[in-house]
């Protein structure tokens, strides 16, 4: 008989080997619309009701039971066995992923983007990538072009990427609305660099009308930008030029780039913003690895970092790495405000 350490090690190994089925079962649930079905029903559903509403073939009912069992195991669905027939209900996790949800926190588009075949394929190339000296990232190895090049050529990918970024903006908007009085005190103008369709800028402009907002992004994004009288879109490349403003906003921009390119971007930001005395600063919305709320583990940050390594040249940085970037870019100081879970707001001053 194997000792307890070996038994535990085998169990952990199985979790790692088959762990990808956890993500794939979640993808399957989103593809089938399981959370939407329960949400639209307005109350918990039996397996028979769910099978009927999803319009699945009769032969798939026992398989649906098995899918619901694992979804319940990792908290996506609440399974109630108190009555004669098991019933299923939503959990806080699945409520984040209902595609028809009206409200601030809807991460269905964000999850859908990362479950897209284009994104999944690059992770299968990671081993091959490690053994090559080329500067190409796994995404480029899988597709022959970078994520940004593909998004510029493929309108479908561009749309699901922009939808994902709009969706993820909700992680910051509530905090910004509640604390923006301090964050934007004395601010008259803001440039949202790489701001896509302007999700955050529109929230800022609506809640703080004294702040004139501009979105800077690549020309192909402009077609998805809906005109807003409070927010202006400027096509351009942040490596070449950033319009002048009191505040430059960078949401999930720097984690896409190498240290060398981040320094180039930050120096452009420093050229664009007002003096510190006039309220000038760069506002960075990113993770600070190792700095999380007490209820959140470090693992999501490390998984996010691995995703960035697969898809881009970027990295999720700890405070020491952030500090080094700011110093080398010519900034004098910074302040980290922790917000939701493993995401933070960093104020950087010239």
From TrEMBL:
Top-level lineage group: Eukaryota
Pfam families, per database record: Dimerisation, Methyltransf_2
One annotated GO biological process: methylation
Example GO molecular function: protein dimerization activity
Location of the O-methyltransferase dimerisation domain: 14-99
Residue ranges constituting the O-methyltransferase C-terminal domain according to the UniProt record: 127-332
PANTHER family tied to this protein: O-METHYLTRANSFERASE (PTHR11746)
Name of the molecule in the record: O-methyltransferase family protein
Organism: Rhynchospora pubera
């Amino acid at each position: 008989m194997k000792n307890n350490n070996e038994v535990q090690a085998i169990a952990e190994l199985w979790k790692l080997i088959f762990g990808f089925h956890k993500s794939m079962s979640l993808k399957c649930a989103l593809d089938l619309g399981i959370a939407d079905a329960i949400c639209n029903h307005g109350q918990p559903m039996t397996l028979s009701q769910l099978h009927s509403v999803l319009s699945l073939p009769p032969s798939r009912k026992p398989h649906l039971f098995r899918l619901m069992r694992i979804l319940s195991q990792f908290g996506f669905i609440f399974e109630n066995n108190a009555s004669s027939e098991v019933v299923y209900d939503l959990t806080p996790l699945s409520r984040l992923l209902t595609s028809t949800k009206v409200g601030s926190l809807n991460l269905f588009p964000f999850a859908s983007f990362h479950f897209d075949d284009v994104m999944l394929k690059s992770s299968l190339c990671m081993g091959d990538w490690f053994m090559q000296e080329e500067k190409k990232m796994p995404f480029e190895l899988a597709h022959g072009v970078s994520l940004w090049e593909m998004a510029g050529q493929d309108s479908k990918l561009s749309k699901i990427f922009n939808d994902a970024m709009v969706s993820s903006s909700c992680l910051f908007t509530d905090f910004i609305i509640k604390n923006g009085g301090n964050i934007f005190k004395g601010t008259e103008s803001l440039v949202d660099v790489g701001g896509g369709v302007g999700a955050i800028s529109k929230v800022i402009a609506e809640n703080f009308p004294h702040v004139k907002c501009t979105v800077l992004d690549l020309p192909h994004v402009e077609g998805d930008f809906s005109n807003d009288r409070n927010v202006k879109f400027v096509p351009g490349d942040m490596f070449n030029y950033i319009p002048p403003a009191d505040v430059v906003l960078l949401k999930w921009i720097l984690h896409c780039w190498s240290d060398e390119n981040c320094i180039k971007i930050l120096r452009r930001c420093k050229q664009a913003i007002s003096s510190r005395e006039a309220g000038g600063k760069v506002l960075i919305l990113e993770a600070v690895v190792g700095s999380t709320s007490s209820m959140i583990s470090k693992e999501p940050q490390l998984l996010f970092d691995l995703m960035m390594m697969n898809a881009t040249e970027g990295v999720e940085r700890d405070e020491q790495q952030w500090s080094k970037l700011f110093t080398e870019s010519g900034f004098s100081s910074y302040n980290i405000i922790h917000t939701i879970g493993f995401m933070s707001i960093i104020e950087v001053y010239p």
